[in-house]
Backbone:
């Protein structure tokens, strides 16, 4: 698994989990979905992602997008 696929998988997991929590627990969890979406948007412009930094420190091999 590369850094890129790890980041995309984590973002997808956060979005799906926050939607489930908003449906079954409290609608306020939609803010987590909005945060994940905004983070993905800014990462597409800047190439910087906090999750990529964490995965890199955990030893996930580099990919093409997040250096």
Residues:
């Amino acid at each position: 698994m590369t850094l890129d696929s790890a980041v995309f998988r984590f973002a997808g997991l956060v979005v799906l989990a926050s939607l489930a929590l908003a449906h079954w627990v409290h609608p306020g969890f939609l803010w987590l979905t909005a945060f994940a979406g905004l983070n993905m948007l800014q990462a597409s412009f800047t190439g910087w992602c906090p999750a990529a930094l964490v995965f890199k420190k955990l030893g996930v091999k580099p990919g093409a997008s997040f250096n």
